[in-house]
Amino acid sequence: MDRAEKTGLTFAIILLLVFFSLIVYAAKGLKIDIPTCVTDVEPFQEGKLIKHGEKRYELHILARMWFFDFNKGATEIKIPAGSTVDIFVTSKDVVHGVHIQGTDFNIMAIPGTVGYMRVKFEKPGVYHVVCHEFCGVGHHAMQGKIIVE
Amino acid sequence: MQVSNAIKFIILTEIVFPTLLLVFGIYHGVMQVLYRAGVIKAESFLGIDYYQGLTLHGVINVIVFTTIFIVGFSNAIVMYALKKPLREKVQWIALGMMVIGTMMAAWAMFTGRATVLYTFYPPLIAHWTFYLGAVLLVLGSLVPFFFDWIPSAIEWKRENPDQKLPLAVFGTFVNFILWTIMIVPVAVEILFQLLPLSLGLVDEINPLLARTLFWFFGHPVVYFWLLPAYVALYTILPKIVSEKGKLYSDPAARLAFILFLIFSLPVGLHHQFTDPGITNTWKLIHALFTFGVALPSMITAFTVAASLEYSVKAEHPELKNSKFYWWTFLPYMRLEGNKWMFSYFFAGLVLFFFGGITGIVNASYNVNLVVHNTAYVPGHFHTTVGGLVLLVFFAMALYMVSKLRGTEVKFKGLAVLAPYFWMQGMFMFSYAMMVGGVITGFPRRTNTGLTYLNPDSPLYRPEWVGYAQLSVVGGVLLGIGFLFFFISLMATLFAPKVRESVVEFPFAEAYHDAPAPMLNNLKTWTVATIILAVLSYIPPLYDASVRGVFFKSPAYIEKYPMPLKQLQGSEKNTQEKELSKAEKEVAQR
Ligand code: HEM
Ligand SMILES: [Cu+2]
Ligand SMILES: [Cu+2]
Questions:
Q1: Residues near B20 by Cβ (< 8 Å), separated by ≥ 6?
Q2: Which of A136, B90, B176, B229 could form a disulfide with B392 if both were Cys (CB 3.0 to 4.6 A apart)?
Q3: Same domain? A67 vs A6
């Protein structure tokens, strides 16, 4: 190896290590983490919005061909701005994707499993939820809305 | 090197047959941008449904075209580098398996029995011919490696005991070792999960386990596509730039290949960051290894740039002290000799620069939440597999066809322009898809023209219009680029013969070389690779089969929101009802 090669290699390794450390810092330090393995909540059969307190909610999203059931069949829900929502996701049939646009909430809905993430809705407005995994002929109309006011 | 007629026919088929299929794949690529932008507002066009076409686009472009072409290219590389003729019987069997497999899967897709996209995630299920076809294609592609190249390499080694395997063969072997290993998990998924479900032998499937096995294959497969292009970058590109061109460093190239071997497999979870049911620690470890696999690409970037510089300066000694000016002496648009090929490599490398950076974004664990399954993802990989890989394959296809047929490359002007149209189109297309995906959440795998990009629909999302329209412009330029290449390829194929049919490549020697016995010990590296891959997959496979999954799922097809079994049951019921009704009517008469 000549000198230029060694310098290049060292630089590349350092660059990658810096990137990776920043990710770990964001995940563990800033708590921006991805969905993990949930073993204490069984997959549910119906969407549900439960109010636990002032601006504290629990939302069970049931993804199914071809709509999101947010609350007993409703594809739109309203919550006050500043709410913290614990969101659980599962699928009734095939694999779907749940992306609450404008947030980091992005989870696959896989039948037989439950995904979880917490979202704080600060800004009022309409948050579009779009299914982004192919789930059959109605896929391009599979969406919902979370209205924050 | 001369070839027998049979081998000539086989290699030509392995180039031309997948390229003809690609015509359809690319056709549907162009259709997709039109559908997505709402230029075509329909479920289907000319009898092919959007998602059926998307399945064809994905399967043809990245499973069929790549696999068969790579076998053809590697056949020629190994044969020429070792100077050993290929074994005809073995090659016929391989070609037969690959073609029959492709036909089976194509039948299922064209008749609408396999609209499951190229990732075939259960519990959506396809006709069994789709899965069996895929298995045949993949197994057929392994036949030459085990029954032709390895025996030839052993012979070669006996004749040349103190030489190391030629770099081109070394890279090809690393690639096929990797290919062999990665096929195991996906074969398990298909043979033990999907095929039995599709045949109705079992009623239920674990979809998360299937996804995990799929991505155990699905990430390394992108390196199976990439490494043949790297073989060409290392061994052929310098010689195209100049007659005196050399590869900057042979050991660095081998190091890159070995790093690819080791780090390509324990990374599949980076496609499943947003999947429930798998513990985050394993996902983070796979993210770390993914950064490891970025390293050999960075080494390659260095070596390729250094080789270009060496090769230009070897021909132009007056540039000896130039730092950047030598870049202007590269044969960007030249027709003489083999120089026309440079445009393909150059456009491919430029695209791959962006592909590499955007790939690191995908791999970045929590950052992935912003891009996962948005249009960003296809935006990214059209600059990798649809950029460098495809363009290098195009150059090699055109070059090999002219050598094998003994013809001149026809319409060289079009052939040289093609990659630049492709590059410009891809810039626009990928920019639109990536920025639209990140900023506004524009989704992938969606016929958006019917709903989100349809002003008459209540679901209309005006913020996506601009991105979708830009992707149409890009898509059309891409289509033109492909057309230019295809005209040149067909004209070259059918041109009058002016030379003998041969297989040959303009291989470059290395400027820095060393024996590096450690790097060349492929057996040891293979064992290490398998151990690391297995270890990295034991915990996630445990999560996906035991811890994170509560129950299995019945099969579905894409048309009905109810399980297939139930559907068949109710169909039977209605049929029986109709039957008994008819009987009654007959009796009444
Ligand atoms: C004219 C050229 C091309 C155009 C306009 C094009 C366009 C597209 C579009 C718009 C999508 C996204 C569709 C969606 O997610 O709804 C897509 C997906 C895809 N493309 Fe292309 N493409 C082209 C060429 C290629 C090539 C050459 C390759 C590979 C060699 C390729 C591989 C893929 C793959 C693997 C997917 C993902 C399919 C899926 O999500 O299931 N494309 N293409
Ligand atoms: Cu869906
Ligand atoms: Cu990957």
A1: none
A2: B229
A3: no
